[in-house]
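Write out this protein's structure.
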Amino acid sequence: MRASIVPWVLLGALAGCARGAARKTDPVASITPGASGVEVDLSPIGSNANESQIEVLRKKKGEFIACYEQALAAHPGAPFPAGKLLVRFYLDEGGRVTEAVYEEDAVGDPLLAQCVLDVSKHILFPPPRVGVTQFNFPIVFKPRR
């Protein structure tokens, strides 16, 4: 399954990079919509992630958009699924994700949820200050208005 999403992930990442990253002074990083007119809100509201973890997640915005676009393409003509995935990350001493699970799925699209978890499991964070750690982070998917 991972091999089938790689082209979408690369396309989404390139689209996100071409539009520029979120400004560090902006407290809410809303991803520039992709070609399908979707947004992914990476606001840390409701998260216990630290600033360095938030920055790393914001750099993955293109991959999260690609997941959303892939889910939409799998259901042509269906209404845009929208909502929040609350992901819990478990990190080892080196900052590697040992496990990523969703604690809340208000979107209800298994393909989207699995893609987000697949992307999440391959993120490398800065090493935690105190050994292994865990944190949660909300990812909100919505159509552009």
